[in-house]
Amino acid sequence: MIAARALGAMLLxxxxxxxxxxxxxxxxxxxxxxITENFKQVKFSAQAGKFDVALxxxxxxxxxxxxxxxxxxxxxxxxxxTRAALVAHDAAEAERGLAVFFVALARDLALEADRQLAAxxxxxxIGARFLEAIWRYYNLADFVVxxxxxxxxxxxxxxxxxxETLARLSSGAPDAARLRASFTRLAQILSNLIExxxxxxxxx
Amino acid sequence: xxxxxxxxxxxxxRGVLLAAVVLLVAAEVGGASMGRYKLELARWAxxxxxxxxxxHGLVGVRDVDERVLDExxxxxxxxxxxxxxxxxxxxxVVIATTTVAATLARAPAARRGLILLLTVGxxxxxxxxxxxxxxxxxxxxxxxxxxxxxxxxxxxxxxxxVALLWLAALTAxxxxxx
Lengths: 204, 178
What we know:
The complex is a heterodimer.
Chain A: H1 2-16, H2 19-22, H3 34-47, H4 51-60, H5 62-69, H6 78-87, H7 91-118, H8 123-148, H9 150-167, H10 176-197
Helix pairs in contact in A: 3-4, 3-7, 6-7, 7-8, 7-10, 8-9, 8-10, 9-10
Chain B: H1 14-36, H2 38-51, H3 53-56, H4 62-104, H5 108-139, H6 141-177
Helix pairs in contact in B: 1-4, 1-5, 2-4, 2-5, 4-5, 4-6, 5-6
């Protein structure tokens, strides 16, 4: 009788626990991709004054390859000017060039998200996925952006927060039209940032 | 507490021991295969994921999709690792708990019931992690988890929990009545 009562009490406790929490399935920590990892290597080497290391990492890394592959969508000569800054031991200028590159990547993602939403892609998937990728890139440039144009940095953060709120609505799917407007605004802010942050040509 | 001089441990049925040893073998083979075929397994999983873009919410943009694929591959690998570890652990748990049940449960029906629950639950539960991993490429992380949850983890894990609670109560009763 005692055993039956004890068993009953313990079963009640066990039944009250939610099943999902019972099964530990690991915690995923997002990793850097090859480009962001190479960016950090170059940036920290340059900041430490190890420009020979920074240049070697830049010349042989995926960051420069990606800048070259996307040259058409980037400000004229951005890759060349960034490399020239590394050669000239100008860490701030090199970092600025790389920041512009990441802002451009984020802008292209915002434009692509808008295009896919316009083509009828599911807003629930597009919103969260693209916003995460945009922030991953913009986050790398935010410090440089904030130093040069604090208002633009705040505007970007506010626009991002708005878009994220729309994308993560708890009730039902996000409104595709409003989400498109959010991505358009993000793209606009990022385009302006590219214009204001792009290093001027040294010979102009 | 010092056991009485005539106390002896009773072995569970040999079928139970065989099931536990087979589970242990599966755990070791699984662990070894994970190391030996790490690349092949990851390639297989990635190919399966790319064949089911809608399931994984892939959007066709590398910068977006790589994070999704990376997380799904991490879960796939975690499932295999958790199978390896749980299979190793549960095999020993089955042997230990069924031995206690065979020794302490005097009523034949209770003994059989306990041993059956402990064996079936203990051997079945780790397979849920393997099933979860295998289903991830075709069904996605969350849906696969739900399938494994309802098909394996809840019934088999539940059986183990019920049997262990029963065994704990039985052991406590034996202590009180001594």
